[in-house]
Amino acid sequence: LDAQLWYACAGGMVQIPPINTKVFYFAQGHAEHAHDKVDFGNFPRIPPLLLCRVSGIKFLADSESDEVYAKIRLVPLRNDCDFDCDEDGFLGMEKTDQSQEKPASFAKTLTQSDANNGGGFSVPRYCAETIFPRLDYSAEPPVQTILAKDVHGEIWKFRHIYRGTPRRHLLTTGWSNFVNQKKLVAGDSIVFLRADNGDLCVGIRRAKRGIGGGPESPSGWNALGGN
Amino acid sequence: LDAQLWYACAGGMVQIPPINTKVFYFAQGHAEHAHDKVDFGNFPRIPPLLLCRVSGIKFLADSESDEVYAKIRLVPLRNDCDFDCDEDGFLGMEKTDQSQEKPASFAKTLTQSDANNGGGFSVPRYCAETIFPRLDYSAEPPVQTILAKDVHGEIWKFRHIYRGTPRRHLLTTGWSNFVNQKKLVAGDSIVFLRADNGDLCVGIRRAKRGIGGGPESPSGWNALGGN
DNA sequence: TTGTCGGCCGATCGCCGACAA
DNA sequence: TTGTCGGCGATCGGCCGACAA
Protein backbone atom coordinates (compact mmCIF):
# COMPACT_ATOMS: atom_id res chain seq x y z
CA LEU A 1 0.00 0.00 0.00
CA ASP A 2 1.35 3.39 -1.06
CA ALA A 3 2.50 5.35 2.00
CA GLN A 4 1.05 8.61 0.69
CA LEU A 5 -2.43 7.14 0.29
CA TRP A 6 -2.04 5.46 3.66
CA TYR A 7 -1.30 8.77 5.40
CA ALA A 8 -4.13 10.51 3.57
CA CYS A 9 -6.58 7.85 4.78
CA ALA A 10 -5.20 7.81 8.29
CA GLY A 11 -5.64 11.56 8.66
CA GLY A 12 -3.50 14.41 9.89
CA MET A 13 -3.53 13.33 13.52
CA VAL A 14 -1.58 10.21 12.73
CA GLN A 15 2.16 10.20 13.07
CA ILE A 16 4.25 7.11 12.56
CA PRO A 17 7.72 7.18 14.09
CA PRO A 18 10.45 6.75 11.46
CA ILE A 19 12.40 3.55 11.39
CA ASN A 20 15.31 3.27 13.85
CA THR A 21 13.94 5.96 16.13
CA LYS A 22 13.30 5.17 19.77
CA VAL A 23 9.82 5.00 21.22
CA PHE A 24 8.17 3.91 24.42
CA TYR A 25 5.97 0.85 24.34
CA PHE A 26 3.09 1.12 26.81
CA ALA A 27 2.23 -2.50 27.42
CA GLN A 28 -0.84 -1.83 29.53
CA GLY A 29 -2.20 0.71 27.09
CA HIS A 30 -1.71 -1.74 24.30
CA ALA A 31 -3.51 -4.49 26.19
CA GLU A 32 -6.43 -2.21 27.08
CA HIS A 33 -6.96 -1.16 23.49
CA ALA A 34 -6.60 -4.58 21.93
CA HIS A 35 -9.74 -6.55 21.19
CA ASP A 36 -8.11 -9.92 21.43
CA LYS A 37 -6.30 -10.90 24.58
CA VAL A 38 -2.69 -9.78 24.40
CA ASP A 39 -0.34 -12.57 25.30
CA PHE A 40 2.59 -11.33 27.33
CA GLY A 41 3.84 -14.83 27.82
CA ASN A 42 5.16 -15.71 31.23
CA PHE A 43 6.58 -12.34 32.13
CA PRO A 44 6.13 -12.08 35.87
CA ARG A 45 5.79 -8.31 35.76
CA ILE A 46 5.46 -5.90 32.88
CA PRO A 47 7.09 -2.52 33.36
CA PRO A 48 4.73 0.42 32.66
CA LEU A 49 6.85 1.56 29.77
CA LEU A 50 9.55 -0.03 27.74
CA LEU A 51 12.10 1.77 25.63
CA CYS A 52 12.22 0.28 22.16
CA ARG A 53 13.70 0.85 18.76
CA VAL A 54 11.42 0.88 15.73
CA SER A 55 12.83 -1.85 13.53
CA GLY A 56 10.09 -2.18 10.96
CA ILE A 57 6.87 -0.60 9.71
CA LYS A 58 4.21 -2.03 7.44
CA PHE A 59 1.47 0.17 5.99
CA LEU A 60 -1.58 -2.02 5.57
CA ALA A 61 -5.29 -1.81 4.82
CA ASP A 62 -7.97 -4.19 5.97
CA SER A 63 -9.22 -6.23 3.05
CA GLU A 64 -12.83 -6.05 4.24
CA SER A 65 -13.28 -2.52 5.52
CA ASP A 66 -10.48 -0.70 3.67
CA GLU A 67 -9.45 0.81 7.00
CA VAL A 68 -5.74 1.48 7.19
CA TYR A 69 -3.53 0.33 10.02
CA ALA A 70 0.16 -0.15 10.63
CA LYS A 71 2.22 -2.98 12.01
CA ILE A 72 5.19 -1.58 13.88
CA ARG A 73 7.98 -3.89 14.89
CA LEU A 74 9.66 -2.90 18.16
CA VAL A 75 12.96 -4.15 19.56
CA PRO A 76 13.33 -3.60 23.31
CA LEU A 77 16.47 -1.71 24.36
CA ARG A 78 18.54 -2.66 27.37
CA ASN A 79 19.52 0.76 28.68
CA ASP A 80 16.04 1.87 29.60
CA CYS A 81 17.39 3.55 32.74
CA ASP A 82 19.10 6.44 31.03
CA PHE A 83 16.45 7.16 28.43
CA ASP A 84 16.40 10.90 28.90
CA CYS A 85 19.91 11.40 27.74
CA ASP A 86 20.81 12.27 24.20
CA GLU A 87 20.69 10.68 20.75
CA ASP A 88 18.24 10.86 17.93
CA GLY A 89 14.50 11.41 17.60
CA PHE A 90 12.29 10.46 20.49
CA LEU A 91 8.71 9.71 19.63
CA GLY A 92 9.07 11.01 16.12
CA MET A 93 8.07 14.53 17.11
CA GLU A 94 10.74 15.97 14.91
CA LYS A 95 10.21 16.14 11.23
CA THR A 96 9.60 12.73 9.76
CA ASP A 97 9.57 11.45 6.24
CA GLN A 98 5.84 11.86 5.89
CA SER A 99 6.10 15.66 6.11
CA GLN A 100 8.78 16.04 3.54
CA GLU A 101 6.45 15.83 0.57
CA LYS A 102 2.73 16.12 1.02
CA PRO A 103 0.72 15.15 -2.04
CA ALA A 104 -2.52 16.88 -2.93
CA SER A 105 -5.34 15.18 -1.07
CA PHE A 106 -8.79 16.04 0.18
CA ALA A 107 -11.11 14.43 2.70
CA LYS A 108 -14.84 14.98 3.07
CA THR A 109 -17.25 13.56 5.58
CA LEU A 110 -20.28 12.11 3.80
CA THR A 111 -23.54 13.99 4.34
CA GLN A 112 -26.91 12.28 4.47
CA SER A 113 -27.45 13.31 0.86
CA ASP A 114 -24.11 11.87 -0.18
CA ALA A 115 -24.84 8.54 1.44
CA ASN A 116 -28.51 8.39 0.44
CA ASN A 117 -29.20 5.42 -1.71
CA GLY A 118 -29.71 6.55 -5.27
CA GLY A 119 -28.15 9.93 -4.69
CA GLY A 120 -24.93 11.48 -5.93
CA PHE A 121 -21.94 13.04 -4.25
CA SER A 122 -21.49 16.81 -3.83
CA VAL A 123 -17.87 17.47 -4.65
CA PRO A 124 -16.44 20.47 -2.79
CA ARG A 125 -15.09 22.97 -5.30
CA TYR A 126 -11.58 22.81 -3.85
CA CYS A 127 -11.44 19.05 -4.32
CA ALA A 128 -12.72 19.19 -7.89
CA GLU A 129 -10.33 21.92 -8.92
CA THR A 130 -7.13 20.78 -7.23
CA ILE A 131 -7.42 16.98 -6.99
CA PHE A 132 -9.59 15.87 -9.90
CA PRO A 133 -8.39 15.93 -13.50
CA ARG A 134 -8.96 19.27 -15.21
CA LEU A 135 -12.52 19.59 -16.46
CA ASP A 136 -13.36 21.12 -19.85
CA TYR A 137 -15.77 23.89 -18.87
CA SER A 138 -16.46 24.80 -22.49
CA ALA A 139 -18.65 21.74 -22.97
CA GLU A 140 -22.35 21.95 -22.14
CA PRO A 141 -22.66 20.53 -19.64
CA PRO A 142 -19.04 20.10 -18.50
CA VAL A 143 -18.69 16.39 -17.79
CA GLN A 144 -15.95 13.77 -17.65
CA THR A 145 -15.26 10.24 -16.47
CA ILE A 146 -13.05 9.87 -13.43
CA LEU A 147 -11.00 6.80 -12.56
CA ALA A 148 -9.80 6.33 -9.01
CA LYS A 149 -7.75 3.53 -7.48
CA ASP A 150 -8.56 2.32 -3.97
CA VAL A 151 -6.20 0.94 -1.33
CA HIS A 152 -6.34 -2.50 -2.91
CA GLY A 153 -5.47 -1.17 -6.37
CA GLU A 154 -9.02 -1.66 -7.62
CA ILE A 155 -10.24 0.94 -10.11
CA TRP A 156 -13.54 2.76 -9.58
CA LYS A 157 -15.27 4.80 -12.28
CA PHE A 158 -17.33 7.92 -11.62
CA ARG A 159 -19.18 10.41 -13.77
CA HIS A 160 -18.06 13.91 -12.79
CA ILE A 161 -20.39 16.68 -13.91
CA TYR A 162 -20.56 20.43 -13.27
CA ARG A 163 -24.19 21.52 -13.37
CA GLY A 164 -27.16 22.95 -11.46
CA THR A 165 -28.01 26.50 -10.47
CA PRO A 166 -25.89 27.63 -8.91
CA ARG A 167 -23.26 25.49 -10.59
CA ARG A 168 -21.60 22.78 -8.51
CA HIS A 169 -19.47 19.70 -8.98
CA LEU A 170 -21.15 16.33 -8.58
CA LEU A 171 -20.32 12.65 -8.90
CA THR A 172 -23.34 10.81 -10.32
CA THR A 173 -23.11 7.50 -12.18
CA GLY A 174 -20.85 5.08 -10.36
CA TRP A 175 -21.11 6.78 -7.01
CA SER A 176 -24.09 4.77 -5.75
CA ASN A 177 -22.33 1.52 -6.59
CA PHE A 178 -19.23 2.69 -4.69
CA VAL A 179 -21.29 3.56 -1.61
CA ASN A 180 -23.01 0.18 -1.62
CA GLN A 181 -19.89 -1.89 -2.26
CA LYS A 182 -17.92 -0.09 0.45
CA LYS A 183 -20.94 -0.03 2.77
CA LEU A 184 -20.52 3.68 3.43
CA VAL A 185 -22.92 5.58 5.66
CA ALA A 186 -23.38 9.24 6.50
CA GLY A 187 -20.56 10.25 8.80
CA ASP A 188 -17.92 8.16 7.08
CA SER A 189 -15.29 10.09 5.17
CA ILE A 190 -13.92 9.76 1.68
CA VAL A 191 -10.39 10.71 0.71
CA PHE A 192 -9.26 11.73 -2.77
CA LEU A 193 -5.57 11.93 -3.48
CA ARG A 194 -3.51 12.79 -6.53
CA ALA A 195 -0.42 10.60 -6.44
CA ASP A 196 2.98 11.79 -7.63
CA ASN A 197 2.56 9.90 -10.88
CA GLY A 198 -0.70 11.73 -11.52
CA ASP A 199 -2.99 8.81 -10.69
CA LEU A 200 -6.14 9.59 -8.75
CA CYS A 201 -6.64 7.49 -5.63
CA VAL A 202 -9.60 7.07 -3.32
CA GLY A 203 -9.69 5.90 0.27
CA ILE A 204 -12.20 5.82 3.05
CA ARG A 205 -12.12 6.65 6.73
CA ARG A 206 -14.99 5.16 8.66
CA ALA A 207 -16.74 7.09 11.42
CA LYS A 208 -15.93 6.01 14.95
CA ARG A 209 -18.84 3.86 16.06
CA GLY A 210 -18.11 4.41 19.74
CA ILE A 211 -15.36 4.29 22.35
CA GLY A 212 -12.87 1.61 21.57
CA GLY A 213 -14.15 1.02 18.09
CA GLY A 214 -16.34 -1.84 17.02
CA PRO A 215 -15.58 -5.47 16.31
CA GLU A 216 -14.85 -4.43 12.76
CA SER A 217 -11.46 -3.08 13.82
CA PRO A 218 -8.75 -4.55 11.63
CA SER A 219 -6.56 -7.37 12.93
CA GLY A 220 -7.91 -7.09 16.42
CA TRP A 221 -6.13 -3.90 17.31
CA ASN A 222 -7.38 -0.41 17.19
CA ALA A 223 -5.67 1.23 14.30
CA LEU A 224 -3.28 3.74 15.77
CA GLY A 225 -5.53 4.77 18.58
CA GLY A 226 -3.60 6.84 21.10
CA ASN A 227 -0.97 4.70 22.73
CA LEU B 1 -30.49 -31.46 11.07
CA ASP B 2 -33.65 -33.54 10.91
CA ALA B 3 -32.90 -36.95 9.35
CA GLN B 4 -36.10 -36.95 7.32
CA LEU B 5 -35.31 -33.65 5.67
CA TRP B 6 -31.75 -34.81 5.19
CA TYR B 7 -32.85 -37.93 3.29
CA ALA B 8 -35.33 -35.95 1.22
CA CYS B 9 -32.57 -33.57 0.15
CA ALA B 10 -30.08 -36.34 -0.49
CA GLY B 11 -32.45 -38.16 -2.80
CA GLY B 12 -33.62 -41.71 -3.17
CA MET B 13 -30.29 -43.06 -4.38
CA VAL B 14 -28.66 -42.36 -1.05
CA GLN B 15 -28.45 -45.06 1.56
CA ILE B 16 -26.63 -44.61 4.81
CA PRO B 17 -25.64 -47.80 6.63
CA PRO B 18 -27.20 -48.01 10.08
CA ILE B 19 -24.99 -47.63 13.09
CA ASN B 20 -23.09 -50.75 14.21
CA THR B 21 -23.37 -52.39 10.82
CA LYS B 22 -20.24 -53.48 9.01
CA VAL B 23 -19.08 -51.83 5.83
CA PHE B 24 -16.03 -51.81 3.61
CA TYR B 25 -13.90 -48.72 3.48
CA PHE B 26 -12.35 -48.26 0.04
CA ALA B 27 -9.32 -46.13 0.82
CA GLN B 28 -8.30 -45.53 -2.77
CA GLY B 29 -11.81 -44.64 -3.83
CA HIS B 30 -12.04 -42.21 -0.97
CA ALA B 31 -8.74 -40.60 -1.89
CA GLU B 32 -9.71 -40.25 -5.55
CA HIS B 33 -12.99 -38.55 -4.73
CA ALA B 34 -11.66 -36.21 -2.08
CA HIS B 35 -10.76 -32.68 -3.08
CA ASP B 36 -8.17 -32.23 -0.40
CA LYS B 37 -5.30 -34.62 -0.14
CA VAL B 38 -6.22 -37.51 2.10
CA ASP B 39 -3.60 -38.13 4.71
CA PHE B 40 -3.07 -41.81 5.31
CA GLY B 41 -0.21 -41.09 7.67
CA ASN B 42 2.81 -43.32 7.41
CA PHE B 43 1.04 -46.48 6.43
CA PRO B 44 3.45 -48.29 4.14
CA ARG B 45 0.65 -49.91 2.19
CA ILE B 46 -3.07 -49.45 2.23
CA PRO B 47 -5.17 -52.53 1.62
CA PRO B 48 -7.73 -52.09 -1.18
CA LEU B 49 -10.61 -52.55 1.22
CA LEU B 50 -10.91 -52.48 4.94
CA LEU B 51 -13.69 -54.01 6.97
CA CYS B 52 -15.08 -51.47 9.42
CA ARG B 53 -17.87 -51.00 11.86
CA VAL B 54 -20.04 -47.87 11.60
CA SER B 55 -19.65 -46.27 14.99
CA GLY B 56 -21.22 -42.88 14.34
CA ILE B 57 -23.20 -40.88 11.80
CA LYS B 58 -23.79 -37.17 11.60
CA PHE B 59 -26.36 -35.71 9.23
CA LEU B 60 -25.08 -32.28 8.22
CA ALA B 61 -25.73 -29.49 5.76
CA ASP B 62 -23.20 -27.05 4.39
CA SER B 63 -23.82 -23.62 5.85
CA GLU B 64 -23.03 -21.92 2.55
CA SER B 65 -24.63 -24.09 -0.09
CA ASP B 66 -27.26 -25.95 1.96
CA GLU B 67 -25.98 -29.17 0.41
CA VAL B 68 -26.38 -32.13 2.71
CA TYR B 69 -23.58 -34.52 3.55
CA ALA B 70 -22.83 -37.08 6.20
CA LYS B 71 -19.88 -37.73 8.43
CA ILE B 72 -19.57 -41.44 9.06
CA ARG B 73 -17.21 -42.66 11.74
CA LEU B 74 -15.62 -46.01 10.94
CA VAL B 75 -13.75 -48.32 13.31
CA PRO B 76 -11.50 -50.84 11.55
CA LEU B 77 -12.12 -54.46 12.49
CA ARG B 78 -9.36 -56.96 13.05
CA ASN B 79 -10.84 -60.07 11.50
CA ASP B 80 -11.02 -58.76 7.98
CA CYS B 81 -9.99 -62.16 6.61
CA ASP B 82 -13.24 -63.93 7.31
CA PHE B 83 -15.58 -61.17 6.30
CA ASP B 84 -17.94 -63.28 4.27
CA CYS B 85 -19.07 -65.30 7.21
CA ASP B 86 -22.21 -64.50 9.09
CA GLU B 87 -23.52 -61.81 11.39
CA ASP B 88 -25.62 -58.80 10.85
CA GLY B 89 -26.24 -56.44 7.95
CA PHE B 90 -23.47 -55.93 5.44
CA LEU B 91 -23.57 -52.71 3.46
CA GLY B 92 -26.96 -51.79 4.80
CA MET B 93 -28.75 -53.45 1.91
CA GLU B 94 -31.33 -54.80 4.26
CA LYS B 95 -34.04 -52.57 5.50
CA THR B 96 -32.66 -49.62 7.41
CA ASP B 97 -34.30 -47.11 9.66
CA GLN B 98 -34.81 -44.64 6.87
CA SER B 99 -37.31 -46.90 5.13
CA GLN B 100 -39.46 -47.53 8.11
CA GLU B 101 -41.39 -44.27 7.85
CA LYS B 102 -41.19 -42.13 4.73
CA PRO B 103 -42.65 -38.67 5.16
CA ALA B 104 -44.46 -36.91 2.34
CA SER B 105 -41.90 -35.09 0.23
CA PHE B 106 -41.59 -33.86 -3.32
CA ALA B 107 -38.64 -32.77 -5.43
CA LYS B 108 -38.70 -30.73 -8.61
CA THR B 109 -35.88 -29.69 -10.88
CA LEU B 110 -36.08 -25.97 -11.55
CA THR B 111 -36.97 -25.00 -15.11
CA GLN B 112 -35.63 -21.91 -16.82
CA SER B 113 -38.88 -20.16 -16.01
CA ASP B 114 -38.67 -21.13 -12.36
CA ALA B 115 -35.14 -19.80 -12.03
CA ASN B 116 -35.68 -16.71 -14.18
CA ASN B 117 -35.09 -13.60 -12.18
CA GLY B 118 -38.39 -11.96 -11.42
CA GLY B 119 -40.42 -15.02 -12.24
CA GLY B 120 -42.43 -17.34 -10.08
CA PHE B 121 -42.42 -21.06 -9.45
CA SER B 122 -44.76 -23.52 -11.13
CA VAL B 123 -45.89 -25.89 -8.43
CA PRO B 124 -46.69 -29.37 -9.73
CA ARG B 125 -50.23 -30.25 -8.77
CA TYR B 126 -49.17 -33.31 -6.80
CA CYS B 127 -46.86 -31.23 -4.63
CA ALA B 128 -49.47 -28.55 -3.98
CA GLU B 129 -52.15 -31.05 -3.06
CA THR B 130 -50.19 -33.51 -0.95
CA ILE B 131 -47.35 -31.48 0.59
CA PHE B 132 -48.59 -27.92 0.91
CA PRO B 133 -51.21 -26.88 3.45
CA ARG B 134 -54.76 -27.30 2.20
CA LEU B 135 -55.81 -24.36 0.03
CA ASP B 136 -59.27 -22.81 0.25
CA TYR B 137 -60.50 -23.12 -3.33
CA SER B 138 -63.68 -21.22 -2.59
CA ALA B 139 -61.84 -17.92 -2.46
CA GLU B 140 -61.33 -15.96 -5.68
CA PRO B 141 -58.56 -16.32 -6.39
CA PRO B 142 -57.52 -19.14 -4.05
CA VAL B 143 -54.40 -17.85 -2.32
CA GLN B 144 -52.51 -18.45 0.92
CA THR B 145 -49.18 -17.74 2.58
CA ILE B 146 -46.80 -20.65 2.96
CA LEU B 147 -44.05 -20.90 5.55
CA ALA B 148 -41.22 -23.35 5.02
CA LYS B 149 -38.20 -24.12 7.16
CA ASP B 150 -34.84 -24.78 5.50
CA VAL B 151 -32.02 -27.07 6.67
CA HIS B 152 -30.72 -24.36 8.98
CA GLY B 153 -34.11 -23.84 10.59
CA GLU B 154 -34.59 -20.51 8.82
CA ILE B 155 -38.18 -19.71 7.84
CA TRP B 156 -39.05 -18.69 4.27
CA LYS B 157 -42.36 -17.15 3.28
CA PHE B 158 -44.08 -17.70 -0.07
CA ARG B 159 -47.33 -16.58 -1.62
CA HIS B 160 -49.12 -19.63 -2.98
CA ILE B 161 -51.83 -18.89 -5.53
CA TYR B 162 -54.02 -21.04 -7.79
CA ARG B 163 -54.81 -19.08 -10.94
CA GLY B 164 -54.41 -18.80 -14.73
CA THR B 165 -56.21 -20.56 -17.55
CA PRO B 166 -55.94 -23.38 -17.28
CA ARG B 167 -55.64 -23.19 -13.53
CA ARG B 168 -52.31 -24.05 -11.97
CA HIS B 169 -50.48 -23.66 -8.66
CA LEU B 170 -47.79 -21.00 -8.42
CA LEU B 171 -45.45 -19.51 -5.86
CA THR B 172 -45.10 -15.78 -6.51
CA THR B 173 -44.10 -13.25 -3.86
CA GLY B 174 -41.13 -14.50 -1.88
CA TRP B 175 -39.96 -16.98 -4.47
CA SER B 176 -37.62 -14.59 -6.26
CA ASN B 177 -35.94 -13.69 -2.99
CA PHE B 178 -35.45 -17.36 -2.18
CA VAL B 179 -33.85 -18.04 -5.57
CA ASN B 180 -31.46 -15.14 -5.17
CA GLN B 181 -30.49 -15.87 -1.57
CA LYS B 182 -29.89 -19.55 -2.28
CA LYS B 183 -28.25 -18.76 -5.61
CA LEU B 184 -30.39 -21.29 -7.43
CA VAL B 185 -30.11 -21.79 -11.18
CA ALA B 186 -32.09 -23.81 -13.69
CA GLY B 187 -31.24 -27.45 -13.19
CA ASP B 188 -31.01 -27.26 -9.43
CA SER B 189 -33.77 -29.02 -7.54
CA ILE B 190 -36.01 -27.95 -4.73
CA VAL B 191 -37.42 -30.30 -2.14
CA PHE B 192 -40.61 -29.78 -0.18
CA LEU B 193 -41.32 -32.01 2.77
CA ARG B 194 -44.11 -32.23 5.29
CA ALA B 195 -42.55 -33.26 8.60
CA ASP B 196 -44.26 -35.55 11.09
CA ASN B 197 -45.23 -32.59 13.23
CA GLY B 198 -46.93 -30.96 10.24
CA ASP B 199 -44.26 -28.35 9.59
CA LEU B 200 -43.40 -27.64 5.99
CA CYS B 201 -39.68 -27.87 5.17
CA VAL B 202 -37.72 -26.85 2.12
CA GLY B 203 -34.35 -28.10 0.94
CA ILE B 204 -32.30 -27.81 -2.20
CA ARG B 205 -30.28 -30.23 -4.26
CA ARG B 206 -27.81 -28.55 -6.58
CA ALA B 207 -27.21 -29.80 -10.08
CA LYS B 208 -23.95 -31.62 -10.66
CA ARG B 209 -21.63 -29.13 -12.26
CA GLY B 210 -19.42 -31.82 -13.77
CA ILE B 211 -17.60 -35.01 -12.96
CA GLY B 212 -16.44 -35.05 -9.41
CA GLY B 213 -18.37 -31.97 -8.43
CA GLY B 214 -16.98 -28.50 -8.10
CA PRO B 215 -14.88 -26.82 -5.43
CA GLU B 216 -18.16 -25.99 -3.70
CA SER B 217 -18.36 -29.53 -2.37
CA PRO B 218 -18.86 -29.43 1.39
CA SER B 219 -15.97 -30.21 3.72
CA GLY B 220 -13.72 -31.34 0.94
CA TRP B 221 -15.47 -34.61 0.31
CA ASN B 222 -18.01 -35.44 -2.25
CA ALA B 223 -21.26 -35.88 -0.46
CA LEU B 224 -22.05 -39.54 -0.58
CA GLY B 225 -20.74 -40.09 -4.08
CA GLY B 226 -20.42 -43.79 -4.81
CA ASN B 227 -17.76 -45.29 -2.59
C1' DT C 1 -20.63 27.30 -1.77
C1' DT C 2 -23.22 23.10 -0.93
C1' DG C 3 -26.95 20.24 1.72
C1' DT C 4 -31.61 18.76 1.04
C1' DC C 5 -35.71 18.27 -1.37
C1' DG C 6 -39.34 17.12 -4.85
C1' DG C 7 -39.97 16.15 -9.68
C1' DC C 8 -39.55 13.07 -13.16
C1' DC C 9 -38.12 9.68 -16.44
C1' DG C 10 -36.47 5.24 -17.59
C1' DA C 11 -35.28 0.51 -16.04
C1' DT C 12 -36.41 -3.25 -13.59
C1' DC C 13 -39.32 -6.25 -10.88
C1' DG C 14 -42.67 -9.25 -10.67
C1' DC C 15 -47.74 -10.67 -11.33
C1' DC C 16 -50.81 -11.93 -14.94
C1' DG C 17 -53.31 -14.84 -18.66
C1' DA C 18 -52.49 -16.77 -23.35
C1' DC C 19 -50.96 -20.49 -25.59
C1' DA C 20 -48.80 -24.66 -26.77
C1' DA C 21 -46.05 -28.71 -25.75
C1' DT D 1 -50.68 -30.53 -16.66
C1' DT D 2 -47.12 -27.11 -16.89
C1' DG D 3 -43.16 -24.50 -19.44
C1' DT D 4 -42.51 -20.23 -21.83
C1' DC D 5 -43.78 -15.91 -23.47
C1' DG D 6 -45.35 -10.99 -23.93
C1' DG D 7 -47.98 -7.54 -21.58
C1' DC D 8 -48.20 -4.25 -18.20
C1' DG D 9 -48.62 -1.87 -13.84
C1' DA D 10 -45.99 -0.74 -9.63
C1' DT D 11 -41.85 0.23 -7.71
C1' DC D 12 -37.27 1.84 -7.53
C1' DG D 13 -32.95 3.95 -8.99
C1' DG D 14 -30.92 7.78 -10.06
C1' DC D 15 -30.32 12.42 -12.62
C1' DC D 16 -32.04 17.01 -12.48
C1' DG D 17 -32.72 22.07 -10.93
C1' DA D 18 -34.85 24.83 -7.13
C1' DC D 19 -33.99 26.78 -3.03
C1' DA D 20 -32.08 27.95 1.27
C1' DA D 21 -28.60 27.63 4.83
Automatic annotation (TrEMBL), chains A, B:
Primary location: nucleus
Source species of the chain: Actinidia rufa
Keyword presence, Nucleus: yes
Domain TF-B3: 106-208
An annotated GO BP: regulation of DNA-templated transcription
GO CC terms: nucleus
Residues included from the entire protein: 29 to 255 of 345
Family assignment from sequence similarity: Belongs to the ARF family.
Protein name: Auxin response factor 16
Source lineage: Eukaryota, Viridiplantae, Streptophyta, Embryophyta, Tracheophyta
Lineage top rank: taxon: Eukaryota
